[in-house]
């Protein structure tokens, strides 16, 4: 793709899907060829391709960063952050957001078609890692003619990708913004994911992952989403929003009365999730997150993962118990040991892990200031 073709027609929210020949060599030893990647772009790429920012999405996110979701009609998941005059300013930057490898929103994953069999991959899709997701994004940037990123930005699993970018391709990343994230999953993180995976696999409609021409395991996936969503919130936020308030007895889901408002909320979150996400993709991506251990990938020492060529900004939230501030501090200490320039701030919010997706003027100022420096 030429730079000229990118300059005029990609002003804001252009959604595309590309088939790249590959091969993409995966950490597990398998290869993918071709590699399908769905992505959106915002803004205009400079002639020297030096103003590109890659934004990486979280577990259940997608590439619809700042434009309406075509299936749900809802605004892009970070619309408040990305756009003209916003913290990630598309008047200045060319922003790329790619659907991760293994997802179900247009990129290669278990729900996509296996070119050999002509059927959905299902559980025959190869095991993937966070680093594999980054390698697929690097293929996309090569296709777009972007050799070096002005910045890579991500929250939660997106932050893992941002860290992996800086570790895997340090000469291709000028700056990294890592929000509410971690360098590896704890036993507690893995335990919550395993509960979700078991819920999916216990659904009789899962059928060992071979369900694409039949009824999907929606109930199991809904329960998995409910369990995970609890970890995205905080006790203070749940108490403020719901407390122990009851609701109408006629509200039902899964055959049980939802006596409490918080029950109804979680059930709604679970059921609405099944309308847009694939159960097998959920299994694959959560497993990739659990495998992620940046220190282990670099000889057991986290500082070995970082080069001083990239400058970093880390942000945590005081009520985030999924990836608490201690996780960010450990990354900052490793960056200091590596001699990498880093700034860090813990923000106060009642909203827990999801705070980075919600209105946060302080976060907006930090991101805008860092990218504008």
What does this structure look like?
The protein has an 8-stranded mixed beta sheet with strand order 1-4-8-5-9-10-13-14, sandwiched between helices. The protein has 10 helices and 14 strands. It is an alpha/beta fold and 373 residues long. The chain has 2 domains: 3-185 and 290-372, 3-Layer(aba) Sandwich (Rossmann fold); 188-286, Rna Polymerase Sigma Factor, Chain: A. The longest helix is centred in the middle third of the chain and has 16 residues, at 187-202. Helix 5 (218-232) crosses helix 7.
CATH 4th-level superfamily of the largest domain: Alpha/Beta hydrolase fold, catalytic domain
Helix content: 25-40%
Query: Could you tell me the radius of gyration in angstroms?
Result: 20 Å
Mean pLDDT: 93
Strand content: 15-25%
The tally of structural domains comes to: 2
Order of helices and strands: HEEEEEEEEHEHEHHHEEHHEHEH
Count of strand segments: 14
Uncertain ranges: 1-10
Q: What is the CATH architecture term of the largest domain? A: 3-Layer(aba) Sandwich
**Which CATH first-tier class of the largest domain would you pick?**
Alpha Beta
Strand order of the largest sheet: 1-4-8-5-9-10-13-14
């Amino acid at each position: 793709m030429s730079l000229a073709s990118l300059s005029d027609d990609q002003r804001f929210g252009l959604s595309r899907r590309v088939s790249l020949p590959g091969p993409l060599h995966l950490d597990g030893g398998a290869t993918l060829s071709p590699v399908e990647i769905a992505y959106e772009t915002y803004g205009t790429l400079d002639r020297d391709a030096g103003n590109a920012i890659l934004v990486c999405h979280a577990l259940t996110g997608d590439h619809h960063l700042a434009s309406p979701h075509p299936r749900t009609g809802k605004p892009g998941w970070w619309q408040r952050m990305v756009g003209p005059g916003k913290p990630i300013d598309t008047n200045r930057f060319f922003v790329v957001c790619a659907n991760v490898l293994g997802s179900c929103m247009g990129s290669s994953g278990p729900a996509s078609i296996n070119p050999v069999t002509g059927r959905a991959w299902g559980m025959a899709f190869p095991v993937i890692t966070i680093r594999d997701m980054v390698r697929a994004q690097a293929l996309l940037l090569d296709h777009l003619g972007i050799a070096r990123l002005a910045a890579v930005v991500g929250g939660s699993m997106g932050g893992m990708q941002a860290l992996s970018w800086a570790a895997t391709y340090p000469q291709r990343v000028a700056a990294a913004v890592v929000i509410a994230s971690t360098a590896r999953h704890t036993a507690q993180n893995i335990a919550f994911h395993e509960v979700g995976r078991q819920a999916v696999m216990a659904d009789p409609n899962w059928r060992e992952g071979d369900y694409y021409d039949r009824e999907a395991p929606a109930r199991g996936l809904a329960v998995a989403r409910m369990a995970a969503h609890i970890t995205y919130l905080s006790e203070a936020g749940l108490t403020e929003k719901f407390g122990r308030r009851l609701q109408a007895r006629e509200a039902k889901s899964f055959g049980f009365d939802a006596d409490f408002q918080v029950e109804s909320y979680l059930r709604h979150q679970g059921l609405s999730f099944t309308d847009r996400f694939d159960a097998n993709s959920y299994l694959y991506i959560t497993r990739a997150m659990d495998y992620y251990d940046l220190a282990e990938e670099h000889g057991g020492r986290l500082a070995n993962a970082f080069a001083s060529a990239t400058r970093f900004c880390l942000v945590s939230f005081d009520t985030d118990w999924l990836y608490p501030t201690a996780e960010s501090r450990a990354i900052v200490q490793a960056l200091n040991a590596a001699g990498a320039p880093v700034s860090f701030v813990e923000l106060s919010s009642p909203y827990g892990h999801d705070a980075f997706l919600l209105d946060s003027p302080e976060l907006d100022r930090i991101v805008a200031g860092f990218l504008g420096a």
